Amino acid sequence: MHVQMHLLPLTFLLTLASGHFDLIEPRSRGSDHDKLAEFPCGGLPPSSQRTQVSLTDPEINIALKMGHDHSAVQVLLALGSDPGTNFNITLVPTFAQIGLGDFCLPDVELSEEKLGTRLTEGMEATLQVVTNGDPTGGLYNCADLVFTASASDDSPDGSCKNGTGVTASPFPTSVGRINANESTANGERQGGSGGGNGDNNQGGKQPSGSAAASLQTAAWGVLGVVVLAAGALL
Predict the structure, then answer these.
(1) What is the residue range of 73's domain?
(2) pTM of full prediction above 0.90
């Protein structure tokens, strides 16, 4: 008896395996796609392996691996060793990202002016990348940081890059003030009309109470320079 095997294309299998997004650089707390919808940080605890950020040149590249072909993305920061839900600093306000695979936000500023506080040796912080869920909620990945004068660049060469056809663009100012976990991929408020991000995930746990307030009071930064820099890498 001849049994005919129908094999799914490898690209299809890879798409299934990469249904959300991964934070490649700086080093993430980990990757558990089953918990990625849990705020904050995909439900993962702080890491003992913190990425060093220079006190004299406090900038960082953010490299992502996108599993959605259309997403709203936002980058937040919280100060402290274990800040909980207090992500009240916006490094990059919500913007549109299109395309699967590698996506890079280069030279994201973490200066004293941006953070609103004096940077000191050994100061710890946590960076959180937020994307929209589908149809509601958000997805969360975190990286733990430490500021130091002796920071060394241990990033692998070429880790921050943009794949073919990957683009980014700012939303209008009014849309940019919506947190990514409240936005559709098209920049509209969740619950209204507009498309999602192509995944079949039915949403996840959204921040509530003080957690939601922490996100709502985030200080909005300037996106244009970062997006233009990302475009230059295409």
Answers:
(1) 18-152+160-191+204-229
(2) no
